[in-house]
Structure formats: C-alpha cells, structure tokens
Amino acid sequence: MRAVFVSSLVLLLISCGDDDSTPVDSSVDARPFGCPSHPDPLAMPGDDLGGDTWETFASGFFETYCTRCHSSELVGDVARAGAPDGLDWDDEATVRANLELVRFVVGESNEMPPRGDRPSCDDRERLVRWIDADAP
Ligand code: HEC
User: Fold this and answer.
1) Model pLDDT for residues 21-74, shown as the tens digit of each residue
2) Nearest C-alpha to atom 2 of ligand 1 is from which residue?
3) Is the distance from the beta carbon of residue 100 to the nearest atom of ligand 1 less than 6 Å?
C-alpha cells in the first residue's frame, strides 16, 4: 500500500516536471481558444458581404452567442453571469458604440463567450468582416 502511494507520488512529481519543461508552442498564441487571431482587417467598407447586415446576420449572432449574459433584460451580476453592466448586445446602438471592443474579444483574443455555446471560427471571421466593412 505504502509502495503504491510512494510511486504515485513520484509519478505526480514527474508529470509536474514535464509540464514545466514543455516548450512554449507559439501556434497557441496564433489560435487563442482554437481559432485564428485577426488583428488585421478582413474587409473594407463597401465590400460585398453576401448580404450580411445587422438585421440579417449580426443581431442573430449576438442573440445566439452573447445575450444570455449581455442583455438589457438581465439585471444583476448573477443573471448576467458577471457580464459588465451596460454592455448589452441586444441593443444595436450599444453594439455600434463598442465595435472595436467586440471585434477584439470575438476575432482577436477570441475570449468571448467565456463558456457554453461558442461560435465556429468561420462565424467569428464573418462577424469580424461585418465590423471591418463598417457594420452595414
Ligand atoms: C457566459 C456569460 C457570457 C457570455 C455568453 C458572453 N460574455 Fe462577454 N463577458 C462576460 C463576463 C463575465 C465579462 C467580464 C469579464 C471579462 O472581461 O472577462 C465579459 C466581458 C465582455 C466584454 C468586455 C471586455 C473588456 O475587455 O472590457 C466584451 C466586449 C464582451 N464581453 C463581449 C461579448 C460578446 C461579443 C459575446 C458573444 C460572442 C459575449 N461577450 C458572450 C460574460 C459573457
């Protein structure tokens, strides 16, 4: 029994050591949360987005992936799961006032949403293109 305990302790120590010596994988930074990071513009104002507008695409994107926390209908830290007050993506004017921040967390750091149902990499890029084309 004691031998088993000691050997698992040794294994634990060895695996900790392995973690420390794992070389930094630079591709992880390029694909935060598994999707590419897009610091540079993916579109220009006036580009053909295949018909994507606030009405036809963006509002639905926010409803699917964001408003379960970021909604003007949710009040208080618990209901909002910590999403900051005032950052309500069911409100078009608020989205438009925060396009740079939204672009960053959806298409560059990819940190939003923090959990639950997350958009595909293609959908993230589609939202970034919509923003870069001046959010028609
Ligand atoms: C599960 C709840 C939840 C969902 C869903 C969610 N967020 Fe958040 N969001 C948070 C919390 C909590 C914070 C504050 C802590 C933080 O910044 O990490 C936050 C902060 C933010 C911020 C501010 C970041 C900053 O640096 O000031 C933005 C912008 C944002 N979210 C955008 C979005 C977008 C866009 C979506 C949908 C794609 C989304 N969030 C989905 C919980 C959520």
Assistant:
1) 555 554 445 798 999 999 999 999 999 999 999 999 999 999 999 999 999 999
2) 69
3) no
